[in-house]
Structures are given as structure tokens and as C-alpha cells.
């Protein structure tokens, strides 16, 4: 199949398919005499696996590792378990960070219960105060999930 057909079959944009090829997650396809890429069913299968892993918020390195394990079907899968355990811990940490972010946003929201002018807005005042405090702390502004 051509790249457009693979794109439709996997519900994946063509640019994403090319990106996965450049990253070495998808093997380079054969080419026709006219230099068109020709993909096989194995490409679709692998692309679907990549997309599923990405939907689980796995990094490209984690996907790469899982694909390498999958490419060696006779190998033991203990390292797959370790990889997944690490990813579960990462997700748990992100959930905690997002809950903290939610509390921070809710605290800000409570600072302005009705409509006022921007100069009297409790939310904007709270943000200014928090930004000033964080600029004096050694860690600076800490946005869960983004700064570390």
C-alpha cells in the first residue's frame, strides 16, 4: 500500500508516519520504480502498536524498547515488566502533579467570585502574588509536569 493508504488504515497523519520512519520506529519501506513508498501489512501492524503505546503516553524511547522486545519473540519479557512498572510510576507521579495543579487553580478561582474590573480581579492578583513568591524561591516557578 502507498503511504496515503497506510495513513487511512492506521488513522495516522502522513507526517507522523514519516516522523516514525526518521526515528527508526518504522522500518523504511520498499520503493517502486517511481520512488513511491510501498508499505506491507507488517508496517501497519507496527504502526498500530506504536500508536497504541503513544496513546498510553509512552515516550518514543519506551516505544522503541518495546518494539525491540517484540522483534525478539523468543526472549524473556522481564524487562518489559520493568519498563511498564516504570511507566506506571511515571503516570502516578503525573497524576499527583495534576491534582496539585488542579488545587492551585481552584484556589485561584476562589479568589474572584464575581465579575470585577481586571485591576480588582482576585485571580490576577493571586497569580501576581504567586509569581512574585516563586521568583524568590530557589526552584522558581514550578509547573507540574513541565519543568522537570
Automatic annotation (TrEMBL):
InterPro entries: CadR-PbrR, DNA-bd_dom_put_sf, MerR-type_HTH_dom, MerR_fam. Transmembrane segments: none annotated. GO terms for biological process: positive regulation of DNA-templated transcription. Residues 91-118 form a coiled coil. SMART domains: HTH_MERR (SM00422). Keywords: Coiled coil, DNA-binding. GO terms for molecular function: DNA binding; DNA-binding transcription factor activity; metal ion binding. The keyword rRNA processing does not apply. Residues 1-69 form the HTH merR-type domain. This is Cd(II)/Pb(II)-responsive transcriptional regulator. It comes from Roseateles aquatilis.
Amino acid at each position: 500500500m502507498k503511504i496515503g493508504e497506510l495513513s487511512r488504515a492506521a488513522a495516522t497523519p502522513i507526517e507522523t508516519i514519516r516522523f516514525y520512519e526518521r526515528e527508526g520506529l518504522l522500518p523504511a519501506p520498499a520503493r517502486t520504480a517511481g520512488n513511491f513508498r510501498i508499505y506491507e501489512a507488517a508496517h501497519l501492524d507496527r504502526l498500530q502498536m506504536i500508536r497504541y503505546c503513544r496513546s498510553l503516553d509512552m515516550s518514543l524511547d519506551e516505544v522503541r524498547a518495546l518494539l525491540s522486545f517484540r522483534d525478539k519473540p523468543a526472549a524473556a519479557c522481564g524487562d518489559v515488566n520493568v519498563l511498564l512498572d516504570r511507566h506506571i510510576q511515571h503516570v502516578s507521579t503525573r497524576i499527583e502533579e495534576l491534582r496539585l495543579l488542579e488545587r492551585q487553580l481552584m484556589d485561584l478561582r476562589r479568589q474572584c467570585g464575581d465579575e470585577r474590573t481586571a485591576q480588582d480581579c482576585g485571580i490576577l492578583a493571586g497569580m501576581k502574588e504567586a509569581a512574585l513568591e516563586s521568583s524568590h524561591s530557589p526552584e522558581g516557578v514550578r509547573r507540574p509536569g513541565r519543568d522537570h
